[in-house]
From TrEMBL:
Gene3D superfamilies: NAD(P)-binding Rossmann-like Domain. It comes from the Bacteria. It is an enzyme of class 1 (oxidoreductase). The keyword Oxidoreductase applies. It comes from Streptomyces lancefieldiae. The keyword Oxidoreductase applies. Keywords: Oxidoreductase. Its EC number is 1.-.-.-. This is SDR family oxidoreductase. Belongs to the short-chain dehydrogenases/reductases (SDR) family. GO terms for molecular function: oxidoreductase activity.
Length: 253
C-alpha cells in the first residue's frame, strides 16, 4: 500500500467546525495528516480531529490555541486560514462597527493565526499556508461591498505573505470559491424572502448551473497544502464552477 500523501504532516484549520473548513479538516486527516481545528465551538468534531476553542478576534486566545496545537502535534506544517463571516449591503449600508467586526475576523483573524503559526512553520520541511479567499475578491458582486473588501485584502495578503516567506520555504496560496453549499448559504437562504427563488438565482449565476460543494473546495485546499504543490506559491485557485473566468452563451433551446 502506498503512503498517504500527507503522512507525517501536522495541520491546523481555522473555522474547521463547519462547511468548507470541516470538509478540509476531514480530507487532510483522510490523507494522513494529524489535524487540529480552531473554532469558536469544537465540541462536536468527528474523530480523529482535535478541537481547540478560540476566537480569532482575540489575539491571546489565538496564540494559546496555536501554541497548544503545535505542542500536542509536535509541530506545525500546514495552516489553513479558512474561518470567515459574511456581510451584505452596498458601501452605504454597514456602519463602522460592522466594518471593524468583519475585518477583525476575515483579515485580522488570518493575520493573528499566521503570526502565531509562523515560528512553527519555519521549522517544517513542507510548510504551507492556504487562505480561503472568495470569488468576491475578483468579481464585482452586488450587495457585498464590505465582504468583498475583506476578501480583496485576503487576496493581497496572500501575495505579500508568499513573497515575504518565500526564502523561508513557506508557501502561501489561496482558494477562491464561488457560492458554495454550506451552512453559511443555508443561513443566507433562510433569511431570504423566497429561499427557493434565491437558491435558483445563485445556481443560475454559476456557469455549471449548481453551487460549488464544500468537498470540492477542500480538495483544492488539500492540493495547495500538500508537497505535490511544492512549486506553487502566491497562487489563487478558483473553485467557482467557471464563474470568474467564463462567459458562456445561454443554452440554445
Ligand atoms: N459558502 C460560500 O459560498 C463561500 C464562498 C466563498 C468563500 N467562502 C469562504 O469560505 C470560508 C468558510 O465559509 P463556510 O461557507 O464554510 O462558512 P461556515 O459559516 O459554514 O463556517 C465558518 C466557520 O468559521 C467559524 N468562525 C467564524 N468566526 C470565527 C471566529 N471569530 N473565530 C473562530 N472561528 C470563527 C465559524 O464558527 C464556522 O465554524 C469563509 O472564509 C468564507 O468567506 C465561502
Amino acid at each position: 500500500m502506498s503512503t498517504p500523501e500527507l503522512q507525517g504532516l501536522r495541520a491546523l484549520v481555522t473555522g474547521g467546525a463547519s462547511g468548507i473548513g470541516a470538509a478540509t479538516a476531514r480530507l487532510l486527516a483522510a490523507r494522513g495528516a494529524q489535524v487540529a481545528v480552531l473554532d469558536l465551538d469544537t465540541t462536536s468534531l468527528p474523530a480523529p480531529l482535535r478541537g481547540v476553542n478560540a476566537d480569532l478576534t482575540d489575539d491571546a486566545s489565538v496564540r494559546d490555541a496555536v501554541a497548544d496545537t503545535a505542542q500536542q502535534l509536535g509541530g506545525l506544517d500546514i495552516l489553513v486560514n479558512n474561518a470567515g463571516i459574511g456581510a451584505q449591503g452596498t458601501v452605504e449600508d454597514n456602519d463602522d462597527a460592522e466594518w471593524h467586526r468583519v475585518f477583525d475576523v476575515n483579515v485580522l483573524g488570518l493575520v493573528r493565526a499566521s503570526r502565531a503559526a509562523l515560528p512553527h512553520l519555519r521549522r517544517s520541511a513542507h510548510a504551507a499556508i492556504v487562505n480561503t479567499c472568495s470569488i468576491a475578491a475578483t468579481a464585482g458582486l452586488p450587495q457585498r461591498a464590505l465582504y468583498s473588501a475583506s476578501k480583496g485584502a485576503v487576496l493581497s495578503l496572500t501575495l505579500a505573505m508568499a513573497a515575504d516567506h518565500l526564502r523561508e520555504g513557506i508557501r502561501v496560496n489561496c482558494v477562491n470559491p464561488g457560492t458554495a453549499d454550506t451552512p453559511w448559504i443555508d443561513r443566507l437562504l433562510n433569511a431570504a424572502e423566497d429561499p427557493a427563488a434565491e437558491r435558483a438565482a445563485l445556481e443560475a449565476r454559476q456557469p455549471t448551473g449548481r453551487l460549488v460543494r464544500a468537498d470540492e473546495v477542500a480538495a483544492a485546499i488539500a492540493y495547495l497544502a500538500s508537497p505535490a504543490a511544492a512549486s506553487v506559491t502566491g497562487a489563487s485557485l478558483a473553485v467557482d464552477g467557471g464563474m470568474q473566468g467564463l462567459r458562456p452563451r445561454p443554452e440554445q433551446g
